[in-house]
Design brief:
The complex is a heterotetramer, with two copies of chain A (73 residues) and two copies of chain B (148 residues). Chain A has 73 residues and is of the alpha+beta class. Chain A has one domain: Ubiquitin-like (UB roll). Chain A is built from two helices and five strands. In chain A, strands 2-1-5-3-4 form a five-stranded mixed β-sheet. Chain A is globular and about 35 Å long. Chain B has one domain: Molybdopterin biosynthesis MoaE subunit (Aldehyde Oxidoreductase, domain 3, Alpha-Beta Complex), CATH 3.90.1170.40. Chain B contains three helices and seven strands; from the N terminus they run βαββαββαββ. Chain B is globular and about 50 Å long. The chains are: A alpha+beta (73), B alpha+beta (148).
C-alpha cells in the first residue's frame, strides 16, 4: 500500500491504495471528482523528494504528496 | 539556518541576531530581504501553511549552492496568521563580496516564490481564503493529470 | 534620509529604527544592504572622507527616482576610521512590491560605488593609504586634462 | 576670483585665481607638477554641481572642486 497526501489548501484526507508506479496513482486519482483541477496544478513528491517522471516506481510504504501552487513570503 | 515562527517574524531581533552571528565571519556584504503584509484588498492579514520536510530540503540545496560561492543563507518564515504591517518572511545572504550577494538574494527570493512549499491565504471577513491567483505552480506540476 | 556616523555605523540599531519608521507605510518589501570591513591584505580597518554637499545632492536625485516607483531609500555611512568586522555602510530600499526593491537596491548600490563622493583609505602599519586601485573614476573624469 | 578646491586624497590647499571658464582653470592647473595624474582621473564640480563641459563659464566667487576616483562602502 502507498499513501497519498494532499498538502496546503487541498481539503482532503490522506488515501491508501495499491500502486506500483505514479502512473497507477494518476489513474486512480483522475476518477476523483474532488480532485478535478488540482491534478493539473499540483507538483508531486515521493517520500518528500520532488519527482517529474510518471513512471517513477512505488513500493509498499511509499508516501506520495500533492503540492498545489505555492506563494510564500 | 531556516527558522519558522508561529505568527509574525520578529524582524528587529532576527536581523540583529543574524548580524551578530556572522560578525567575525569576514563577510563583506549582508543583504536581508524582509517581506511585510500590506494593507490591500480589504484583508486583515495573511496566513501560511508550510510543508516542512520539502522546505528544508529546498533550503539545504540552496545552502550548498551558496557555499560554492563562499556565501551563506539564512531564512525565517511565519506559520499561521500574520496581521497587517507585520512581517512574514526574511531571506538573507552573507557573502565576501557584494556582487555575489546582490545576485544571490535576487535568485534566492525569486526561486523561493516559485518553489518553496508554502501556501498563502487571505484573512478576510473572518475567512481564510487560498490565494490561488497569486500562487505559482511548482515546476513539473500537472504530472498526475491523465492525458485524454 | 542620509545619515553619517563618525566611526562604524550602528547596524542593529539603525536597521531596527528604519524598520520601525516605515512599519505602517504599507511597503511590502524592505531590503537593506550592509557593508562590513573584511580582514584582508593586513589592514586594521578602513577610513573614509566624504564630501557632504555633493553626496547629499546625489542622494536626493536617487530619492526622487525612487519616489517615481513608489519606493523610498535610506542610507547610512561612516566618516573617519572603521575597524575590521564593523560596518561602514547601509543602503536600504522600501517598496510596495519585491521586484522594484530587488532591482533598485542593486542599481542604487552599484551607482553608489561609482558616483558617491566618498574616498576610501586602508589603515595599515599606522598609515592611512588612499585605496587608489579599488577606486572608480566618476563619470566625466579627466575634463581638466589639457590635450597636447 | 574663483576658488579651486581639492577633495579627498589630493593633499593640496585651495587656490584662488582669475578664470572666466573651466578651460582657463585647466590651463592653469596643467602647469602644476603636483597635480600630474590627478587631472586625468578627477571629475569636476562647480558650486557643488557636477559639470562635464570645459566651456562652462565661471564668475567671481565660483567654487571649482576636483573629485578624485571614489570608493564608498
Amino acid at each position: 500500500m502507498v499513501t497519498i497526501e494532499f498538502l496546503g489548501p487541498i481539503q482532503k484526507e490522506k488515501i491508501s491504495l495499491q500502486a506500483s508506479s505514479l502512473n497507477d496513482v494518476a489513474v486512480y486519482l483522475s476518477a476523483d471528482e474532488e480532485l478535478k483541477g488540482w491534478l493539473e496544478s499540483c507538483a508531486v513528491a515521493v517520500n518528500d523528494t520532488m519527482v517529474t517522471d510518471l513512471n517513477t516506481a512505488l513500493k509498499s510504504g511509499d508516501r506520495v504528496s500533492l503540492l498545489p501552487p505555492v506563494c510564500g513570503g | 539556518m531556516l527558522e519558522l515562527f508561529d505568527g509574525p517574524v520578529p524582524v528587529e531581533e532576527t536581523l540583529a541576531r543574524w548580524y551578530k552571528e556572522e560578525a567575525t565571519s569576514n563577510y563583506g556584504a549582508f543583504i536581508p530581504f524582509v517581506g511585510t503584509i500590506r494593507d490591500e484588498d480589504g484583508i486583515s492579514g495573511l496566513s501560511f501553511d508550510i510543508y516542512t520536510p520539502i522546505l528544508n530540503s529546498w533550503f539545504e540545496a540552496w545552502q550548498s549552492k551558496a557555499k560554492e560561492s563562499g556565501a551563506v543563507l539564512k531564512m525565517a518564515h511565519s506559520r499561521g496568521d500574520v496581521p497587517l504591517h507585520t512581517s512574514s518572511y526574511i531571506a538573507a545572504v552573507f557573502s565576501p563580496k557584494r556582487r555575489v550577494a546582490l545576485e544571490m538574494i535576487e535568485e534566492f527570493v525569486e526561486d523561493f516564490k516559485a518553489s518553496a512549499p508554502i501556501w498563502k491565504y487571505d484573512l478576510k471577513d473572518g475567512k481564510r481564503i487560498y490565494a490561488a491567483e497569486r500562487s505559482t505552480k511548482i515546476k513539473g506540476s500537472g504530472l498526475l493529470k491523465v492525458k485524454k
